[in-house]
Amino acid sequence: xxxxxxxxxxxxxxxxxxxxxxxxxxxxxxxxxxxxxxxxxxxxxxxxxxxxxxxxxxxxxxxxxxxxxxxxxxxxxxxxxxxxxxxxxxxxxxxxxxxxxxxxxxxxxxxxxxxxxxxxxxxxxxxxxxxxxxxxxxxxxxxxxxxxxxxxxxxxxxxxxxxxxxxxxxxxxxxxxxxxxxxxxxxxxxxxxxxxxxxxxxxxxxxxxxxxxxxxxxxxxxxxxxxxxxxxxxxxxxxxxxxxxxxxxxxxxxxxxxxxxxxxxxxxxxxxxxxxxxxxxxxxxxxxxxxxxxxxxxxxxxxxxxxxxxxxxxxxxxxxxxxxxxxxxxxxxxxxxxxxxxxxxxxxxxxxxxxxxxxxxxxxxxxxxxxxxxxxxxxxxxxxxxxxxxxxxxxxxxxxxxxxxxxxxxxxxxxxxxxxxxxxxxxxxxxxxxxxxxx
Length: 439
Prior knowledge:
The protein is of the alpha/beta class. The chain folds into two domains: 2-133, Rossmann fold (3-Layer(aba) Sandwich); 158-433, pyruvate-formate lyase- activating enzyme (Alpha-Beta Horseshoe). It is built from 16 helices and 14 strands. Strands 2-1-3-4-5-6 form a six-stranded parallel β-sheet, with helices on both faces. Helix 12 (315-326) runs parallel beside helix 14 (376-390).
């Protein structure tokens, strides 16, 4: 069979379409590697190039997170009209399989690693089931090397994406990771990670360890970083700010080649953190933690969520003051988005505060619920204001482009900031032109 694995695109000129630091979905290259050799497989990411559904294939496999589900359904229906079988998977179909099956022939619920060969066999025999679900969580010790050669390397800021762990030991109310993996946290054998690093065609380029929490198991993290320190690597990953309390670990991360960490600070309000269930975050330790990482040459890409119940209109200026004071290198500044399957979706739905289930608006840039501490308009306008201000030239000069405070992380965060500066403005113009605001 000829199999095409497809990632739907964001709407043209939307907030996420225009960002410059795109990276490939690891799940697509992993599924390609899990495909039996007798089948021809390709990967198509619509964010990199337009999709031609008239190009022949026997099976279209579409992965979709919530805001991309409507586009995913359009693609699925286009292929089915041409007689092509379609299977869908990913976070959104996992939580709403009955919705997804109306647009495709089969839905894979949850992880697909150990059931993918069965899906392909059934498709080849014309015996696709409507739903597939693994009996057990994926055993990470048996994963093949991802087929990165199927990607167009020119389209991505990061080409090298690797996973060393899966899941997160924390249980944040808004998090889709906890929801889909059920609070489990699994590690991959260090030798397997090393084998994958050695196989990279561009190992000298940055590696993005896409773990949701690379230090969820501290003993494993130390072993991993010790192995990485044997190579001349430059990498970024994700983890909690609590890692900065362990100076030995931070030193080891720096020695291993860590240039940046994506850290979920989420809020400057202790009340919000309690509501989220973010128990490891202590606001009073944020600044010292950022300084610790900076002192070891590790940049901080901070995530703050706007719209939680204890947020007032002043939250935006409060964040900006914090960002300039601590000189964080970059930031992900989304609106609170109650994705289906999360506890925040259940809570806001019970409270009657969700105002739309048009999934295309669940893009983390559109208000889809009634906030408590401000109006919908104040939250929406504040989102655009804080993103524009943070990625303004003035803000960049204060935070990262300082001649007497050069950090090695500038190599990656400099281009990232510069790329975001025009992108945010373009996305805002598109947002209001398309009339995406909620009444």
